[in-house]
Amino acid sequence: MKNESVSSITLERNVIKNPARSDNLFLSILRTYKVTILLFVGIIVLTAVLTPEFFNLQNIINVTRQASVVGIVAIGMTFVILTGGIDLSVGAILAVSGVAFALMLNAGMAVPVALLIVMVIGVLIGIINGIGSTFFGIQPFIMTLATMAVGNGAALLLSNGSPQTFMVNSPIVEMLGNGGIGMVPGPVILFIGIAVISWLVLKYLPFGRFVYGVGGSLDAARLSGVRTTRILIMVYSISGLTAALAGLINASRLYVGHPTADSTIMLDSIAAVVIGGTSLMGGRGGVGGTVLGALLLAMVANLLNLLGVSPYNQQVAKGLIIVAAILFTTPYLKQHIKQQWTGL
Predict the structure, then answer these.
(1) Cα(222)–Cα(213) distance, integer angstroms
(2) Is 8 contained in some domain?
(3) Three-class SS of residue 286?
(4) Is residue 202 one of the residues assigned to a domain?
(5) Is 2 a member of any domain?
(6) Residue 184's beta-bridge partner residues?
(7) CA nearest 128: which of 149, 145, 143?
(8) What angle do CA 275, 240, 297 make, to 5 degrees?
(9) Domain residues for 287?
(10) pTM of the full predicted structure?
């Protein structure tokens, strides 16, 4: 029994070691995100050949702005997926956040207070997801599906099913929506800031190692003394917070809180994470790949728009890219196919 316990703890130590750590940062990034980087470079080359106008400065700014909202949500989703979970409620949190923000500003509330309350709402919904998935043992897919339904209903109920416009003269709202520093839009600055902070957290802080450890082996992490319940609640809180921030950006850009805003954000954020090389099984991946994945999705959408491809065909293209990314990032794919073939 003693040897078994020692073996479990040794296993956990190996699991919790952050896979993003390496003595050579460049080689580590290249090794971890090689498929995503190849896809990214391939899209750039294809774009240069088919639509040279893509590289117009204003168009590049638009692409980065489009990628920032999906990217911010996807970073929060990365934390959840790294633990082996999933968060389907991000779209509902985004919608509720935008509607609540508009209603509070229309009621005369100060912008900083309204911003803080919206972020707290996002965190609280994340905590509910985390508690349901841990204390009550509800599968994350089902738990977040339930909060998605409640959130969508709450957004429609609060807004009476109609967009809530607001008028406010605030540099904060301007920066979140249409402002920026120089040529760099405010949402892109926020996206970069969140990405850098998240990367540092996952790479250097114990919390980051614990996130990878929980995704690699929940039981081993628990046996080693990691407070797995706390870690899981925290990652869902982070996901809720980033979704709320994305809702604030959407509302600030158009000065409207829409109860059905960005209905595809959940699928797009998961796609960005998967394309970025993070395993849906947990324990492998990181924020760097997610950033590239969000940019890649935005570039593909922009390229197809410039080529005049219909939105329906764009969804087909997005699906094919996701499947290709999963196939190329699956370890030991040939052996897996061979094993399944023998089972026919």
Answers:
(1) 9
(2) no
(3) coil
(4) yes
(5) no
(6) 181
(7) 143
(8) 25
(9) 16-329
(10) 0.89
